[in-house]
Amino acid sequence: MSEPVWLTIARELQAIAQTGLTFTKDRFDIQRYERLRELASELMAHGSGSDTQKIVDLFRGESGYATPKVDVRGAAFVDGRVLMVRELSDGLWSLPGGWADVNESAGECVVREIFEESGFEARALKLAAVRDYQKEGHPKRALHSSYKLYFICEITGGAASVSNETSEVGFFDVHALPPLSLGRILPQQIERLYEHWLHPELPTDFD
Prior knowledge:
This protein is an alpha+beta fold and 207 residues long. The protein is built from five helices and eight strands, in the order αααββββαβββαβ.
């Protein structure tokens, strides 16, 4: 399902305004880019039913060249079953993962996320897929463009343990998954990652 046109336009207008404000030194251009950011906020608020000022404030908090955010997810399989965690935020299940942190590689991030959210130590074996969030069928996010990096991982130690973000840890058959947190992971993505685990020679998937 494609995202609404207003969302695509508003996000791009915000990116142009943010990048312009980062590099311009001309005071008149600064005024133009600030107005462009206001228009992007108004369009976003109108389409989403949100408060315009809240979106303006969020956009003002973004600076630098506008680029997609990066989310990492780790798929670790044991006897054909995939490691999953129940998210405290919505009570639904996902692969361990989250936003990538600065000063860590993507592989280091996913290993850390697995340990923090599940209690298991792991190592990243393969980058299986790089996907654009907006093109995968996830629920639509209003503000940010993001890429999702999916890794095949191997559990090397540790034991199941919940965290301040998770309430349960479990292993599931890929064809009998629990209710999923669809903003984080989709069933067809887990099935595709299972194929990568079975066939490590497969090349990395990307949009």
